[in-house]
Write a structure and sequence with these properties.
alpha/beta, 17% strand, 8 helices, binds NADP nicotinamide-adenine-dinucleotide phosphate
């Protein structure tokens, strides 16, 4: 049985493209999570229509997290702690891939370091050692993810304190058509999250939609 991924907040901008790519890869079963189960079901139905087969289900966030092997969090930072509280019962023993970026609207092109050090570190602190938190995908713009056949010229920097959990996130990146790279401990997520604010500023100044980052010097398929 392929592993199940729940994309919490998968009704927004970033989550659906990731869900679509993972479902299309055939390597995962995918659940869209929402505060409203009917909204999740609608988002799942839209993705299934695009896929031409029924590969994605919709559920309320807590049920989605409980039903998954790997949980991916794609909600605004303002909803980060409350959403984690709402799903924590279903996270025990699992990997949480945190895609969240702390931003302070309207100044979204400025790096904001939250009180706990970074969104991902705050998630780990809130959830405790029974959940392995990995930070990934924060630098991948939703505009690139939405077309699953569109190649993306950006790397996924993966930060975490558990090697197996990071390897799972690298595999998720590969299944989504991306190159995932081990970017060190979870503490390093502060830089990766901050890079997203830098990229948003670059998007604005250069009038583009999806600036990204690429690590050079290590070849296409690092071991
Ligand atoms: N968009 C991008 O290009 C991009 C790129 C990289 C990283 N990110 C990061 O990924 C995360 C998600 O981004 P996004 O653009 O997908 O966000 P979004 O569309 O604004 O929100 C995603 C989902 O989060 C839930 N949500 C929104 N406000 C909430 C609230 N106040 N309380 C609880 N749930 C709430 C909603 O789901 P329900 O209403 O269905 O519950 C919503 O559909 C953010 O942290 C963002 O910084 C985004």
């Amino acid at each position: 049985m392929p592993p199940t991924i729940a994309v919490i907040g998968g009704t927004g901008h970033e989550g659906p493209g990731l869900a679509l790519r993972w479902a299309k890869s055939g390597q995962y079963r995918v659940i869209i999570g929402s505060r409203q189960p009917e909204k999740a079901a609608g988002a799942a139905a839209e993705l299934n229509a695009r896929l031409g087969q029924s590969l994605v289900r919709g559920m309320a966030n807590p049920e989605a997290a409980a039903a998954a092997d790997v949980v991916v969090l794609t909600v605004p930072y303002s909803a980060h702690a409350a959403t984690l509280e709402s799903i924590r019962a279903g996270l025990a023993g699992k990997i949480l891939v945190d895609v969240s970026v702390p931003l302070q609207p309207p100044q979204v092109g400025r790096v904001y370091i939250p009180p706990g050090g970074s969104a991902a570190v705050e998630a780990q602190t809130l959830l405790g050692g029974d959940v392995r938190v990995v930070a990934a995908f924060q630098n991948i713009s939703a505009v690139h993810l939405e077309d699953p056949d569109h190649p993306i010229e950006s790397d996924v920097l993966v930060c975490g304190d558990d090697a197996a959990a990071k390897a799972e996130a690298v595999a998720l990146a590969r299944a989504a058509g991306l190159r995932g790279l081990d970017a060190g401990p979870l503490q390093n997520a502060v830089v990766v999250e901050g890079l997203t604010a830098v990229l948003i500023g670059i998007n604005r100044r250069y009038k583009v939609k999806g600036a990204g980052i690429r690590i050079t010097g290590i070849g296409e398929e690092p071991s």
